[in-house]
């Protein structure tokens, strides 16, 4: 029988319904919000973060800096996918948030170092409403035993809690407030594409960086002043450039001069990684007998690299590099519930500076749901249209990108490349390249022969793979629409056993649809939740 670890400080866990339940020390480290129907062990391992609880409590007391104070309660916040977050209540009533990155959040050191510097830059230089950071460490070799950030508790209430209660007029006003924040992003261009750091944090690191010594005509003044630490633009901290074996490889992680250099670097990185690391494997969606080989992947990346100069050709190579929020969904925006004014924006991990052509077309909070024909769906469309209209008026550079009818055709291959083999998704990259080749003349390259072509046999094999994937997708979407199994197989812990029963049942039903023994074997292999 295992011994339950106890803490002198009461420990609790916040639940989805707003209630709390007591937990023990081991629960602080584990991921508890969801379970998975496939690959669960690996997914839980990448979300497990052990640390020294007493070290964290001591750090919080030191941060408050009042003699005799202590932490009287620690609440584990509802979990996201990439961090452990805790609300610490001190004996004088003061509250602060502790955030510790999970292993899947990004590279050691760079993830935290970049977030801290980026938030400082955005808060002080662009006057954005971001929680103040009290103390932090980007080195795990500290008394906490993990990287951490201790920060101000965001004032207000998460917009996601009140969004459905707001009128359309109030939601339109909220979109206007978000656009005002996006205007601040647009007010400053940065010379390279990468992540912001304190220069002092990179001086002893074996990475490329460039000090930010710019003056800007915006109202925010010079990037540097005597009171501020020196900022620098350094390598990307995105996990796709550092995952698994990549963390120890000398890859091109930036900073990059422009989108053309970035697009080329992505391909070179994948070829270098695949050459040394990738191994043949079965992709049953494509073949039951022939494995998918690293050479297949490298050939696909070489096709991408041949096309990439045309996907990012002038004027897109001259687009400015700007900061953007990495995940602006409703729960990352805090508002005053009485005035509906934005009070704070949280979750700036993975903030980067990138060309406008690589930015999202709209914030995640404006994603359309499946209910397009409903009144809710009409309101969602109105909000998205309102956002685009506002961008057209306030940011002509960004609007020029969005108005390009082939913007997605050009950008999709670039976004598909990083980590494509690891995601087991050569299909999507191949589909993006086939689409780009099909629109070669439409994109204005009619006077230049396309450097890539796909033969009839390859297109036929791709179509067969697409037909199979679409058939499976139809079944999986129906299971989600019926409230049985969510896409991706991520379920609440209390529903896990029932979901597994349903999964096994529908897998048998799917196999039974086969018309012959070969199809039965195929259906058994391609069911996603194994």
Automatic annotation (TrEMBL):
Aminoglycoside phosphotransferase domain: residues covered: 80-356
InterPro entries found in the cross-reference section: Aminoglycoside_PTrfase, Kinase-like_dom_sf, Mito_inheritance_9
SUPFAM superfamilies in alphabetical order: Protein kinase-like (PK-like)
Gene3D superfamilies: 3.90.1200.10
Organism domain of life: Eukaryota
Pfam families xrefs: APH
Coiled-coil annotated spans: none
GO CC, one annotated term: mitochondrion
Name of the protein: Aminoglycoside phosphotransferase domain-containing protein
Native species: Penicillium digitatum (strain PHI26 / CECT 20796) (Green mold)
């Amino acid at each position: 029988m295992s011994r339950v670890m106890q803490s002198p400080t009461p420990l609790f866990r916040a639940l989805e319904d707003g209630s709390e339940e007591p937990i023990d020390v081991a629960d602080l480290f584990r991921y508890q919000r969801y379970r998975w129907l496939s690959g669960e062990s690996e997914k839980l391992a990448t979300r497990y973060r052990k640390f020294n609880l007493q070290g964290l409590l001591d750090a919080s007391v030191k941060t408050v800096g009042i003699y005799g104070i202590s932490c009287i309660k620690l609440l584990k916040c509802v979990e996201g996918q990439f961090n452990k977050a805790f609300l610490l209540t001190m004996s004088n009533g003061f509250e602060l948030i502790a955030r510790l990155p999970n292993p899947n959040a990004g590279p050691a050191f760079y993830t935290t170092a970049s977030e801290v510097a980026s938030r400082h830059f955005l808060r002080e230089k662009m006057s954005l409403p971001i929680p103040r950071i009290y103390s932090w460490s980007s080195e795990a070799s500290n008394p906490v035993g993990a990287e951490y950030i201790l920060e101000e508790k965001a004032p207000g209430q998460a917009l996601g809690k009140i969004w459905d209660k707001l009128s359309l007029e109030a939601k339109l006003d909220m979109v206007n407030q978000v656009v005002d924040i996006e205007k601040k992003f647009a007010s400053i261009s940065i010379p390279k594409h990468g992540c912001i750091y304190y220069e002092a944090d990179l001086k002893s690191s074996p990475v490329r960086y460039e000090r930010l010594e710019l003056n800007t005509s915006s109202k925010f003044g010079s990037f540097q002043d005597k009171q501020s630490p020196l900022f620098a633009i350094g390598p990307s901290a995105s996990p796709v450039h550092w995952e698994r074996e990549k963390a120890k490889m000398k890859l091109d992680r930036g900073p990059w001069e422009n989108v053309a250099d970035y697009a080329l670097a992505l391909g070179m990185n994948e070829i270098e990684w695949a050459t040394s690391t990738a191994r043949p494997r079965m992709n049953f969606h494509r073949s039951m007998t022939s494995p998918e080989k690293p050479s297949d992947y490298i050939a696909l990346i070489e096709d991408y690299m041949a096309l990439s100069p045309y996907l990012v050709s002038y004027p897109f190579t001259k687009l400015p590099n700007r900061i953007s929020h990495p995940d602006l969904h409703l729960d990352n925006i805090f508002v005053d519930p009485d005035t509906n004014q934005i009070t704070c924006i949280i979750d700036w991990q993975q903030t980067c500076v990138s060309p406008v052509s690589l930015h999202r077309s709209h914030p995640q909070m404006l994603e359309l749901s499946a209910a397009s024909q409903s009144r809710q769906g009409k309101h969602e469309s109105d909000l998205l249209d309102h956002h685009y209209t506002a961008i057209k008026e306030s940011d002509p550079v960004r609007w020029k990108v969005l108005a390009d009818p082939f913007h997605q055709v050009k950008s999709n291959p670039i976004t598909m490349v990083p980590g494509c083999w690891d995601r087991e998704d050569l299909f999507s990259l191949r589909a993006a390249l086939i689409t780009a080749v099909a629109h070669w003349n439409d994109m204005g390259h009619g006077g230049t022969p396309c450097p890539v072509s796909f033969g009839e046999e390859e297109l036929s094999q791709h179509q067969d793979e697409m037909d199979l994937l679409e058939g499976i997708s139809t079944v999986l979407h129906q299971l989600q629409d019926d409230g049985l199994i969510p896409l991706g197989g991520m379920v609440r812990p209390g529903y896990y056993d029932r979901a597994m029963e349903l999964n096994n049942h529908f897998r048998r039903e799917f196999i039974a649809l086969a018309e012959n023994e070969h199809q039965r074997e195929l259906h058994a292999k391609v069911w996603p939740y194994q």
